[in-house]
DNA sequence: ACGCCCTTGTGAAAGCGCGCACAAAGTGGG
DNA sequence: CCCACTTTGTGCGCGCTTTCACAAGGGCGT
């Protein structure tokens, strides 16, 4: 262990901040492509759609990479955020499930351009295996363990039907996958050391429906819902 | 207007709670299909993957729908949550963008079963227009305003390339859409009264990469990252 | 009818995230 | 060389979220 921690960095980046770093990174790439050399917190915050004070506080968790009176150097900040997120190295990803969603994910350009390499696209259906998708030949699910091992896959993307998800998840974890992105509408049980993030399209719609209904209630006048009760 | 508000309900459901209600609903549907008549907060919380105290507090915001010593009636709770989320009425959804992702969304079964009806699937590409997807014929983007008006569409799903998203969004808002689910990797600008939720597949992967890297750093011993600095 | 046991519903406290507002620091012009 | 201007980095208070712990309430066996 190195004496005592020299800075409060590296250890304590708030989860909320981590979730926004990719957002800043995306905005910065946009500025970079347009040739902008430096950017103020105000401008960057505006592009990223957040409060400028929040942006500055977020960035301050990584270190002091800005220049007072000037702003942030775009390229340098891109590098620092990328490094913090671990995007300066490549990550191998396996997508399990080659249905509509799995194929859409494999075909999605946003992955390859940010340090993620799709190592394999797997499916259980023999009729789908062998099919060509986004330059990849769909492989059989039983090759999962070999793929994870050979390709050093550390992130698994589950795009299977709900019923198959937990089984696939267990096999991923058993094979050594450390993080899972789950698109199946189930809660996955995993060991302590495995990270899971979920994306549920149906849930997002339901949240929107709630707000939409509230707006409708407001237009009709309050209190009408009570009439339906009891 | 009904005298004074009888309960502190309806008005003040925390956003964090709203985001979890669909999760509980999904868990309850599972229990319902298995014929379970009642469920305790402990059991339901376990299935939904949350803390039982949090579950109880969440449900308490809707009212007192449990029975002490027994638990919650599954069917009754399903009804109450559905009503609160506004799922007892049908919502018309338009999906804009019939690429891989748009088609996957149109084909995704989870929508129709939860009170959402896909009114139309639209695309700008003449070669895609007319194609049959999930029982729907892809229509041209210029029909957007007509579709929204005729089909009473209140939720728009944007599955277009990033460059087209803001334009499509503006047209949706102009046509009267009140909520937008955005899959394009851009920050959308909308008027005050419009709700936007975003799903960015690339961002989720980047967050996982961060945690994965942290785990790797831990294994190699702390402090190695500092050697790369300056 | 009574008392035991189970589970809900909720105060209270701790934790976290957000945004204001300002001091610190660096730039450029005169 | 100094001063005015710009922008960062952050201390602080506020409100939301989570969690604990327990009193209140209801069923069930005897």
TrEMBL record, chains A, B:
GO terms for molecular function: DNA binding; DNA-binding transcription factor activity. SMART domains: CoA_binding. Residues 86-187 form the CoA-binding domain. Its main location: cytoplasm. Residues 23-62 bind DNA. One of its GO terms (biological process) is negative regulation of DNA-templated transcription. The keyword Repressor applies. It is found in: Cytoplasm. Keywords: Cytoplasm, DNA-binding, NAD, Repressor, Transcription, Transcription regulation. It comes from the Bacteria. Pfam families: CoA_binding, Put_DNA-bind_N. NAD(+) binds at residues 97-102. The keyword NAD applies. GO terms for cellular component: cytoplasm. PANTHER family: REDOX-SENSING TRANSCRIPTIONAL REPRESSOR REX (PTHR35786), REDOX-SENSING TRANSCRIPTIONAL REPRESSOR REX 1 (PTHR35786:SF1). Homodimer. NCBIfam families: PRK05472.1-3, PRK05472.2-1, PRK05472.2-2, PRK05472.2-3, PRK05472.2-4, PRK05472.2-5. Modulates transcription in response to changes in cellular NADH/NAD(+) redox state. Belongs to the transcriptional regulatory Rex family. This is Redox-sensing transcriptional repressor Rex.
């Amino acid at each position: 262990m190195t004496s005592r921690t020299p800075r409060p960095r590296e250890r304590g980046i708030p989860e909320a901040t981590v979730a926004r770093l990719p957002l800043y990174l995306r905005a910065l790439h946009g500025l970079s492509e347009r040739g902008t050399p430096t950017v103020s917190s105000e401008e960057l915050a505006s592009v990223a759609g957040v409060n400028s004070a929040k942006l500055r506080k977020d960035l301050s968790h990584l270190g002091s990479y800005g220049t007072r009176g000037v702003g942030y150097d775009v390229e340098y900040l891109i590098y620092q955020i990328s490094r913090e997120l671990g995007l300066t190295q490549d990550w191998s990803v396996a997508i399990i499930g080659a249905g509509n969603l799995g194929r859409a994910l494999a075909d999605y350009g946003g992955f390859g351009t940010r340090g993620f390499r799709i190592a394999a696209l797997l499916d259980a259906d023999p009729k789908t295996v062998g099919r060509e998708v986004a330059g990849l030949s769909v492989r059989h699910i039983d090759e999962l363990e070999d793929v994870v091992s050979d390709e050093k896959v550390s992130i698994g993307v589950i795009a299977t039907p709900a019923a198959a998800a937990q089984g696939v998840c267990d096999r991923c974890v058993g094979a050594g996958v450390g993080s899972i992105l789950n698109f199946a509408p189930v809660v996955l049980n995993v060991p302590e050391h495995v990270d899971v993030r979920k994306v549920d399209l149906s849930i997002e719609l339901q949240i929107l429906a709630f707000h939409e209904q509230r707006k409708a209630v407001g237009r009709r006048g309050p209190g009408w819902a009570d009439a339906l009760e009891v």
